[in-house]
Amino acid sequence: MGTLRKVSLTNQIMAAMVLGILAGAIFQQNIIGIKVVGDLFLRLIQMSVVILIMGSVIEAVGGLEIQELRKIGFKMFVWFMGSTIVAAVIGVIFGLIVKPGVGLKGTIGTVDSLTVNDGSLQEIILDFIPQNIIAAMAEANMIQVIIFALFFGLALSLVKQDVKGRQMLEWVSNFNSVILKMVTLIMQLAPIGIFALIAAVVGEIGVGVLGTLMKFLLTLGTAAVLYLIVWLGITTLYCKVSFSRLLKNIWRITMIAVTTTSSAVSLPVKIEDGREKLGISDRINKLVMPLGMSLNSNGLAMYLSLSIVTFAQFFQIELTLGQLTQAVLLSTLACLGTVVVPGGGLVALATVMPMLGLPTESIALLAGIDWFSGVFRTLLNVDIDVLVALIIANDEGELDRGIFNGEKSYTE
Fold this sequence. Notes:
By secondary structure, this protein is an all-alpha fold. The protein has 21 helices and no strands. The longest helix is centred in the first third of the chain and has 33 residues, at 66-98.
């Protein structure tokens, strides 16, 4: 037992992932029932995500001066939108070069009860604003929660000169610390939960389904990994840090992302490791990480644009430059406030497909491998959020290189 405690949580998660794949392949349909254990772990994490996002954004915005918020907000917008558009463009380029939709045959899996937003642009914009914040929290509508938190934090930043305002900011900060501690305790169950999730997925769909769509998965995986490597290189040069040290510091975040395929579940780990391993100040950390989760989905944008090109090839449709541009823009906009839990990619795809005149039913082609493609989507979604936060912290002079280099530990 003592030896197990010495094994880091990251290594335990990696072992659980491998054992889960083996168990699923061996026991197949007989192990599907274990999924309830994985779902229980996900729910334990997800039950605090909404208030964690709200609290983090309120604390971060409330602690800023208005001019600081404008400055940091502009930087976030540039990095978020720029990186998402580039990711969507890369998805299109790889799709046109590799042609994963050519020769694709058959229909795999089924898609049930996907919500497609058929509303006008005005309705979509209105849906960003909550009519009732309690209802938005209950529905886990992340973009509405963030909008409310931004306005609440802005109001708090204006009244924090008063004693009651300072007390409120301090209360929010203390509350966030308790929530993070709770999530840290729950994360000790991660190896068990991840083993159950992966074993159930592999047991249910088998490894045979990968053969039919392996070309699509390889295209997505190659594009995602190469894009991430480029981002790691840019961050290393921009922040003047060690490439190997950066990889080491984000490794646990990466493992949580690819094994849970959920940006929401990864958020608490991003915030904790951003502060304690990367040396990002709380001011930047608690603002950029939650906002990035809902507004900076590079992996999803790449997946959507590549899927559009793949479906066009499957139906033997020649896309014009204008249609490809539209695919990039739709893939970028569809990432705003999307579902940040496993399976959210299919929901976003169901939103984009009708806008390009492609049949929604064809999403079933990718449904069977959604978990596997979710690995690459979440990898980019999560890791690039962290890298953007690191870049902004470096810009603002709020990157503690002592913590980043492991020369000192984080202290409250």
